[in-house]
Amino acid sequence: MSNLRTRDGGALALALNEIKKTYNVDATILGKGKTLHKWGFNANSANGTWETVQDGGGTETLLAANSITVVDSTSASDTMTLSIEGHYLDASANLIFHVQSATLTGTTAVTLSQPLARCSRMYVTSTALAVGTVTANAGEGGTVYARIDAGSSTTEKAATTVSYRDFLIVTGFGSTILGGNNAAVRFRAELKPKGGVWRAQARWALRGDNTDYDRDMKSPPFIIPPNTDIRIRSSASPAGTEIGAHFDGYFAIDEAYINDASPAPA
């Protein structure tokens, strides 16, 4: 088990012990060496509809195949390079983390070198901001699974996926109402394990403009097992309420997989 010498080491050591007792896995945070800060923003929420807190709102239908194949823009001026983070499925339906780059050619779709089943983050690695709306799609003109808004350089999507060999120890999450007319917003943090259904891990609510909620390490952390999706959703009133949400944590890798090569795609 990792020897943790950090301010929050006690809670993290307890989380590693819980992973051992619950899953019979020796996991290491220091061996993984990776943290997570994931945030989302919805500038135009629907009225009374549960949506993932992300650019453009709506709720993603998770794919059972590596169907996210292209990126493109609504503007011919967008020719910058993107870094694209996501997961592909192998032949055993395990989720494998993968990072790739792609250079946009305006409105012409660019094929990804590795098709994905999840796209959790995209960001511009060159100097220009997006002129149009940049999207990762299931085929040219297909369903959008990640989006960079015009004038921005990154996706804002309060959702991610934990790969087949990792655990995510969520140490904090929160939300904010950034603008609205005396808005009321309900939130849910949800996870979906491989072969399972979405289930809520926490619920909370905010009322009024410019209000915030944050939960941190003073409470027990959430342990998200391998091959699991996690998201924060919201339901707002009135329509058009601006909403933000985030979650943070530490990845821990199963020590048995530290030196594994990534499996081949399905």
Mean pLDDT: 92
What is the beta-strand fraction? Answer: over 45%
Main sheet characteristics: 6 strands, antiparallel
Query: Helical percent range?
Result: under 10%
Secondary structure class reads mainly beta
Distance between the termini: 33 Å
Task: Indicate the CATH topology of the largest domain.
Answer: Jelly Rolls
How many structural domains? 2
Envelope shape? globular
Low-pLDDT segments = none
Q: At the first level of CATH, what is the class of the largest domain?
A: Mainly Beta
What pattern of helices and strands is seen along the backbone? Answer: HEHEEEEEEEEEEEEEEEEE
The value of Rg in angstroms is 19 Å
Number of alpha- plus pi-helical segments: 2
Q: Would you report the number of β strands? A: 18
CATH architecture of the largest domain: Sandwich
Structure, described:
The protein has helices spanning 9-23, 29-32; strands at residues 27-28, 35-42, 51-52, 68-73, 81-89, 95-103, 110-116, 118-124, 134-137, 144-148, 159-162, 166-179, 184-193, 199-207, 211-215, 222-224, 228-237, 242-254. It has 266 residues and is mainly beta. It folds into two domains: 9-54 and 159-257, Jelly Rolls (Sandwich), CATH 2.60.120; 68-148, no CATH class. Strands 1, 2, 12, 15, 16 and 18 form a six-stranded antiparallel sheet that branches. The longest helix has 15 residues, at 9-23. The chain is globular. The two termini are 33 Å apart.
